[in-house]
Amino acid sequence: MTLRLTAREAGLDLPARPSRLGPTIAAIVVGVIVVLATADLDIDWSEAGAIPGELARYAGLMFAPPNWEKLPRALFEMWRSISMAWLGAMLCVVLSIPLGMLAARNVGPVWLRLPLRGLFAVIRAVPEVIIALILLTVTGLTPFTGALALGIAGIGTQGKWVYETIESAQEGAAEAVRAAGGGIAEVTRWALWPASAPALLSFALYRFEINIRTSAVLGLVGAGGIGSMLSNYTNYRQWDTVGMLLIVVVVITMIIDAISGALRRRIREGATTRGVGRIS
Amino acid sequence: MPLEAPTRPRTWRRTALVVLAVAAFTVATCIPAIGGVELDFAAIAKNWRFGAEKIGQLMQPDWTFLPRTLQPMLETLQMALVAAVASAIVSVPLTLWAARPTNPNGITRRLVRGVINVIRAVPDLVYATVLVAVIGVGALPGVITLFLFNLGIVVKLVSEAIDSADHAYLEAGRAAGGTQTQLNRVTARPQSMPLYANQWLYALELNVRVSAILGIVGAGGIGRLLDERRGFYAYDDVGLVILEILVVVIVIEVFSNLLRRRLV
What we know:
Helix content of chain A is 75%, strand content 0%. By secondary structure, chain A is mostly helical. The longest helix of chain A is centred in the C-terminal third of the chain and has 37 residues, at 184-220. By secondary structure, chain B is an all-alpha fold.
């Protein structure tokens, strides 16, 4: 005869189910805030129903078929955007690696570290467009302004990544160099740099990928490049050309992402071993 | 007996090649004739005072302008929150469909990834520009822009994290006879919640920063005010708005770091 008993019937002392009261209350509070925020937004919900139809209509105007007439011009402007992104990334990396290193806990002195971290935080909070607007007064409405703005605006995040990478580098090598009589410069060169160089190079390429997207934003304020062309043709309401531009932006961005992604994987993981240690 | 050290591996040839390639690319980006950037350092030397002057003006914010900024700032925060929550809800199934361990079907996985890659490839302000032209000025194009922007980030980063992690729990579930859907619901989703929470909070932080500039193309929020005051050359007001964005961004960052420590 089999006897089926629940744990409680068998007299086992089960721990009480953990209280879910806290998380439940938190979820309700967040939910109420979200609903209130949605309801209070300045959106005309009566027209919301028509939006999918409108979007489909405009998609038809843009892509059925796109106007390829301006393609050479678009590629020219795209290369300008890529150039801005690349030079901005170079500037950003060249500035942020030394600054970020000095802001790391095991390298820089306190009086230098804290102001640098503050500077990074401030730059992170200022939108790129604002930096571009300040630079406009110096270098005018040129792609050079765009490159400078990208370079300066990126320092905030890039510097933070650099010091986080350096801080997470293992202490062992640094200690060995110190034991052999190395100062801060030697420790940086022979312990911290080799340990963090792959990550830093990978971040540098990632900065380039981010800049490709941001450079389109700067184009909207007049720094040139594909962003300027896109906003112009949107203003002229030449939708078939806008469609072509969108295709150019998407395809080229994806190609660059793929190349840069492959390079980053190669930098971080090293060469793939061919025919070595493959048993199965 | 003399010590025989192995010869140092030779990598200078490869290093030289890489350096050369980078240098060539950099030079190509500096040729204006093919669309490159014209480096104009003389302008910096000549005009840096204008920039310094502008920064000086921005540093003297006009505090009497503060009451007028509160409503747009609130709208910015609302847009950021609504978009982050909407994309968080949609991101859960999409992410599980885009990761290999939770979606072994190659065709649907590539399809979802492809769509996400296309969404990610369009810059945020480009969405905003086109959507404002289509739907009209207001908060809605801003919310849709942020929603798409967040969806791309969360789905890509979380699905990559799921891809690279170990999945003993999935194997256990499969051994117990669960279907893929059941496994995803009962094991993969709760297991990856910390990953999700981390990226959702990151998306919320980014939203505040991005929605601050969406207004420039007419997509609502504090950016509209920023652009308007800039149009009037009222740099003391612009300074105040920037300061406000700075404070809000830092507050959100501190808050989300606290939450992150609890959730992750």
